[in-house]
Amino acid sequence: MVPKLKMLATVSRSAWGGSLSQGITNRRVHIAGTLVVGILFASSFAHSQSAPTPPHAKHPAPPPWAYANNPADKIRDAKDKSTDPTLQHVPDSTASFTLAQVANFYNPPDWHPTDHPAMPDIVAHGRTPDVRACGYCHLPNGQGRPENASLAGLSVGYIVQQLEDFKGGTRKSSVPDRRPGVAMVGIAAQATEKEVVAAAKYFSSLKPKQWIRVVETATVPKTRVSGWMLVPAATHGTEPIGQRIIEVPESVERTELRDDQSGFVAYVPLGSIKKGKALAESGGGGKTLQCSICHGPELKGMGKTPALAGRSPSYMVRQLYDMQSGARNGPAAQSMKPVVEKLSLDDMVSLAAYTASLNP
Asked: Within a 10 A sphere around the Cβ of 38, how many other Cβ atoms?
């Protein structure tokens, strides 16, 4: 979807983006170098904001469903629960941790240590008090969650560049106070070059896996915000999906325990995968460019250009939106400018639904 640099010479400059965790990246999916944003309130408000965006609208409001911002009272609730001394367990693991240990930024739980190589110290523990463990947000297997980025399999150079962009102020969120992005800026400012490279090499060595189940549907569970992502509401009701993507954990309990064997389900509008496929493969008659030009024939990335296949659609929409709004403006993001400028929010939803449905 992003042209090679020499092809961009007549259009613009070159660029792209990705992320390390609230310890080495924030977000999940790239379109040759930039990303997308939205801020989340309640699901009912999110639905009320789901009307299609005019194709040439200039910077419409960020889609609320894409950018979940954790309410302050939920943060307090999580802190209160962390005092519970009960040992927690997840399937297929002999490990056990208390809720306080699960919530430890500098020693996050590793439920399945035999599933991945030995983690470097910066990934496993971070550096108190300035740099959180990369594995806390991006998980030991690098798969990440909807509020941040999947790092597994990204090139070392790409990951390093994203940290430089966070540090230099050229990679931000279209919702400036959204905490995952704010955390990444702070971490990038404090991490040493040696720490960044060690984390980048670790995550680059990991093989991405199928992590998100994509379901086309007309109705979705009502949701609330928890941990800067959507989870089903306690009422267990449903509502029309509209032109939204609703991405929730397969198991809220396991996800809250940071179990890196428990993935996500992304509900997308009916017909959006087919529409996204056509747009990605044809460029929509001049609306954008073919994604495979830079991201490879199966959208699994080429060189420093990140893979799109199988990535979080919430993250993908944020990155596209951020590139279009100018919040993401690093070296790689520059080449994405002409690629995203004509995309409507509906186009972003369709592209994200399609790329998320692909095998990584």
From this structure: 27
Contact 200, 156 (CB under 8 A): yes
Domain count of the fold of the chain? 1
Contact call for residues 46 and 336 (beta carbons, < 8 A): no
Backbone angles phi and psi of 214, in degrees to 5:
-100, 130
**Predicted local distance difference test score (pLDDT) of residue 70:** 80
- Look at 235 and 56; give whichever has higher pLDDT: 235
Q: What is the rounded (10 degree) CA torsion for 233, 150, 136, 220?
A: 0
| Closest CA relative to residue 268, chosen from 291, 283, 284, 248 | 248
Length of the chain: 360
Residue spans of alpha helices (H) in 103-223: 121-124, 134-138, 156-168, 179-190, 193-204
Say whether pTM exceeds 0.70: yes
Q: Per-residue pLDDT tens for 304-315?
A: 899 999 999 999
State whether residue 97 is helix, strand or coil.
Answer: strand
**φ and ψ at 166, to 5 degrees?**
-60, -45
Q: Which domain holds residue 276?
A: 5-357
The CB-side HSE value for 233 (13 A sphere, CA atoms) comes to 15
Taken in order 317, 151, 305, 334, is the CA torsion positive or negative?
positive
Q: pLDDT digits over 69-116, tens only?
A: 886 655 545 555 678 899 999 999 999 999 999 999 999 999 999 999
